[in-house]
Amino acid sequence: GDSVTQMEGPVTLSEEAFLTINCTYTATGYPSLFWYVQYPGEGLQLLLKATKADDKGSNKGFEATYRKETTSFHLEKGSVQVSDSAVYFCALRGSSNTGKLIFGQGTTLQVKP
Amino acid sequence: KAGVTQTPRYLIKTRGQQVTLSCSPISGHRSVSWYQQTPGQGLQFLFEYFSETQRNKGNFPGRFSGRQFSNSRSEMNVSTLELGDSALYLCASSLWGLSYEQYFGPGTRLTVT
Lengths: 113, 113
Description:
The complex is a heterodimer of chains A (113) and B (113).
Chain A lengths: L2 E4 L4 E4 L4 E3 L1 E4 L5 E7 L5 E7 L5 E4 L2 E4 L9 E3 L8 E8 L7 E3 L3 E6 L1
Parallel strand pairs in A: 2-12
Antiparallel strand pairs in A: 1-4, 3-9, 5-6, 5-10, 7-8, 8-9, 10-11, 10-12
Chain B lengths: L4 E3 L2 E4 L5 E6 L6 E8 L3 E9 L2 E5 L6 E5 L5 E5 L8 E8 L8 E2 L3 E5 L1
């Protein structure tokens, strides 16, 4: 079945460092790919999405490119801030007619001043 | 526009009891999905509703059930609670269709003692 694998955390960075969180997926057909962020005590917020190969999703300085050849959707940010500290989830929605999201295990990011 | 609301936010129940959680979607959204989040299993899909019909169901026992009302509000019910049902239950709403992203509520934290 469809699945998502994320790099294990926690990831600890200094402010203004470059961030990469790896995400790879297994799916049949052409899934849509998402990154969600969860701050402590809150639900999930959609960070960015890509719906077809080579699409680049971007938001708030974060970017991810849908790479079908490597089945990857890695999250990047050029300069992280303390306020980016959160848990990040990579997710896919299969190409069948359903809203069901399949999530990776989540990666905790801690940014130190 | 108001976001997805979930009630109650926190709940403590005893093993063997049943519980009902409520979700009010964003105005105009007719699709509601439910997810269970635990430290061990991560985020797992429970079910998806559209137009009062269950469209998709995850791999959970029959103790977990749900429904959707004509105003798109949704409830989920867990009967005969077990300790392992302790989790954050997240509701997400969206417009119907593959191109529409899901918006999550803050969740209901259920603790079973």
